[in-house]
Amino acid sequence: MYTRWNTYSSYLKGKYGEAVYRIGVDAGFSCPNRDKTRHGGCAFCDGTGSIAVYQRSSESSFRRTACYDSTVADTILPRLLSIKEQIERGREFLSRRYKARLFSLSFQSWTNTYDSVENLKRIYDDALSIMPFKELLISTRPDCVEEDVLSLLESYITSDRDVWVEFGLQSADDNTLRSINRGHTLQEYMDAVRRAHAHNLKVATHVILGLPGEGREHFIATAEAVNESGADAVKIHNLHITGGTALSDDYLSGLLTVMSEERTLESTELFLRHLDSEIIIERLISETPYHRLLAPRVFPDKSKFLRHLEERMERNGTRQGDLA
Ligand code: SF4
User: Fold this and answer.
1) Exposure check for the chain: N or C terminus, fewer CB within 10 A?
2) What is the pairing mode between strands 102-107 and 293-295?
3) Does 323 fall in a domain?
């Protein structure tokens, strides 16, 4: 058990009395930052939409140029059937592998609020009727949560179920956000978190350490922005370069490097020290399938990295929030 940061597993055990396992689904959404009205998506995005490991058997969701109109009504039935299959596959895998008994449902691929409210309601209603879930988690963008969508999400909160929205922020620096083509500003993120909280939703924020041109002062500024936003949880990723992305072109041209394990440990420790100690840490490292990963190729696996981080912080006498 890790003691230097506020772990997600402790939070879940404290709240529900035992571990809760996420079933992640790809519900066939697209992304406003990749579709016809914008250009190419985020510089680090390879179009796979972060599908869960056990849903990746054939990489069938690989859609680098995905750009379909998800408001077309007749796409919804196959989507509902696919979601049902994915939930059943996830439950079977997690029960067999971990003896899981409690589950949360995570709409994690692409932008999971990018559709009409009517379609969103059908999709969420249908998925939540399949089995009981302790938490509903919706990954989306700060510029894709209108009031009617937030009200819909709020309607799924019960005495027995929390609803979370996960916002990608990645960096608090607007210049960086522009350079990686995020398509939103820090202010839009701040505003989205405030509006989500006003609807009683919990908020997790995704950040990336090691984006082009960023260093210690950027990591500190991003931690401080997350504190200021009042986000309930954070997912930290070290920059991964995957094939076919805008960043992969820069990497292959020698314009960009990625952090070694040592620099990642140092940066993660720094970020954690400046992050409010109450914020739950849901993730500390990226996990990209090796066959899609261009860099870093030499890096320890997740459990080794977490052990190294815990040992380092213990050695240094540091912990989450001690500089916040
Ligand atoms: S918001 Fe997500 S899905 Fe959309 S382009 Fe960026 S990383 Fe890709």
Assistant:
1) N
2) unpaired
3) no
pLDDT digits (tens, 9 = 90+) for 24-72: 999 999 999 987 666 779 999 987 656 665 565 544 443 434 433 444 4
Distance 322 CA to ligand 1 centre (A): 33
Distance 33 CA to ligand 1 centre (A): 6
How far is ligand 1, taken at its centre, from the CA of residue 308, in Å? 30
Residue 248 lies in a domain: no
In whole angstroms, what is the distance from residue 84 CA to residue 291 CA?
A: 28
Does residue 265 lie in a domain region?
A: no
Alpha-carbon distance of 106 to 91, in angstroms, equals 12
Domain encompassing residue 135:
8-236
Count of structural domains within the chain: 1
Residue 285 lies in a domain: no
For strands 233-238 and 202-209, give the pairing.
parallel
pTM for the whole structure = 0.92
Find out whether 79 and 111 touch, Cβ atoms under 8 Å.
Answer: no
CATH of the domain at 60: 3.20.20.70
Segment 148-193, tens digit of pLDDT:
999 999 999 999 999 999 999 999 999 999 999 999 999 999 999 9
Does ligand 1 come within 6 angstroms of the Cβ of 31? yes
